[in-house]
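Methods: example folding runs. The two proteins below were folded one after another, and each record is reproduced exactly as written to the output file, sequence line first and structure-token line second.
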Amino acid sequence: MCRHINGLARTAVGGGEVKMCLPVPCLNVINGGVHAGNALAFQEFFLIPSGASSFAEAMRLGAETYAKLKKVIEAKYGKRDTGVGDEGGFAPNISSPEEGMSLLMEAIEGAGHGGKIELGSDPAASEFYSKEKGAYDLGFKCEEPNVKTAQEMVALYQRICGTFPMALLEVSSVAKRQPLCAASTDAVSSSSSKRTLSTKRISRATPS
């Protein structure tokens, strides 16, 4: 597939040399939503080693941080919370997406990879969107609801992107038909632009 894509790129530039490169991996290391039995509404939390000089180094940084994350979770919540969700990420019984991001940051710094790994998330907001209420329930797995309007969700996304080094915040095709997507795209982009993200470093990561 990579050779085919490289061939298409070579054709697009008129037959000139195109250096093949691998994408930076996104490691799904904390699970919530419908993929885990915890209280966390957001479904996926990613480590994105965009500061790596090669794909091999990116995998090493990610693996070392994943191992450190287990120790961080165990120290804070106990060994029981180091169980994993459906997609292999840890599933600590937390409820706040900010708490999940903070765990990732502590693991990154603890592994000695500060400044080399950015964060990402797929909230999968369509899973906790209520058509009846026209709102999003972050407490959909809890006894007490935590309902937010689209505007309140935008504010949450802005706060996350303004606080943490976010390189990715995914919105599904289903969510695009909901009020959240249109309202959040410009606001989150503006919030993220205040941070220095690593799109150039991402494009230069090459296989070893």
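Second run, written to the same file directly after the first:
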Amino acid sequence: MQIKAFGYRSNIIMGSQWSRDSTYKHATQEGYRSRASYKLLDINSKFGILRPTDNVVDLGCAPGSWLQVLRNLTEGVIVGVDLQPISPLEGVRTIIGDFTDPLIQSEVRRIVDPVSVVICDVSPKLSGKKSYDQARIIDLNEKALEFSQGILKQGGNFVVKTFQGELFNDFLTEVRNNFYSVRVYRTRATRKGSTETYIVAKNYIHRRDDASTD
């Protein structure tokens, strides 16, 4: 099922970037849409972020390789969000739109509740300027974290791709303030020389509104 959300403008480019290297060719031979499939498989094998009945939201899901992996790992509801259209996958619901838009967030909540896991492999279109690119992905990371805070159930998990750099530690601290267990992991499928890394956060601390009442 694919739900189109019109009227949203964004200069964010969502979805993993990949090239036709040997890992990509191996992925296509196994029926995956990109080499990024192996990154999620690796993360889940090492950290066990997904359980067989988990409901999952995939932010920046195009071209759908992580959705393919999710479909084989959980029988729960799977929702993917991206600015780009995604070729249909059986058992997966997709929304075309910007996940930072409140209307898109409301649509996700309408489809799936509660959410056990939020994953985000989103990346901006790279300029080649490391400090600029890192600032842009950290901005996306923070928005993905904010999204997860608004939808994850107590004890839920969050995985996000980021880049190493001067802003990395501040964001890592922010994640640690919201989850009991936080690890930094470089997957085996990550290209040599890349600053790409993943933050794997488990057991969300759901902070209730402690405002006093009469």
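Comment on the second run: The domain at 14-204 is CATH 3.40.50.150 (Rossmann fold).
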